[in-house]
Amino acid sequence: MATGMDRIRDRMTEYLADCGVNAISAWPRGDRQATTEAVVSVSLRACQAGPAGYQDYLGERFCEETGQWEEVYGRKAKMIFGLDIYALSDGGEEAIETAFDRLAEAFAKGGPEGMAVEELSCGETDYDKSGRRLKRAVKVMCSAYLYAVAKPGGAFYDFEIKGGVKG
Amino acid sequence: MREAQTLARLLRRFGQVVSLRSGGAVYEVHAVLQPIPEGRRTQEQRLATPLGVRGEDRYLYFGPADISLVAGGDRGVRWHGQNYVIQMAHPIYMGQKVLYWQAVLAPED
Questions:
Q1: Tens digit of pLDDT for each residue in A118-141?
Q2: A91 within some domain
């Protein structure tokens, strides 16, 4: 049974790419790509899941497919994604600023399906010696419900991510 | 200067042909490139980074006195199909004249 967390980072990367941000999931297997454009490296920096109701019981919902009421169980998760922006030293600060603007625009539209974006923040640009790039540390905090539906016999279907409360 | 002429002759004879790009221009010169192994025995040759895997080799460059090198910017070296960035570059003097240029190169990505 999947926990719903397996593709969460890729989902964030895909969302940003769809919004026109040059984003990659952090620590890819292949060689570093040569690019003059700033790159956003997406990582899951922290995740904390806690109870969202009594015994994780979230309530009931009516399933139109089966015509039956289903019990929904789940937990509320808070996730912090690292969205560090890297750019070449030569004229990189401008590229970083442009990339950060695009990130802010992407989150102003919403966020990845099933995730509620709560806070976007960044530090100042610095030179990352090991990466030989300018780097601005960026993070975004999101919340989501990891929920599962109980079958009539009590077994659970796979967990899924469902949106938290959007502000 | 006889020393500079002798060195230029040696570079032509034993050096490799490399392309230097500087300020939009490309120069083909004879230079000696050799890997720098000192102090790197405990380091990985290829290092994983958040943006992908990167080569960690460093090369020492000895090139002709009349083509100056500058670290960073759009300057670089191309050799055997690989681009290198200039990490540091210094003119080496004999008396008042530049005898040759020395630089440390890193693979560009």
A1: 999 999 999 887 778 899 999 999
A2: yes
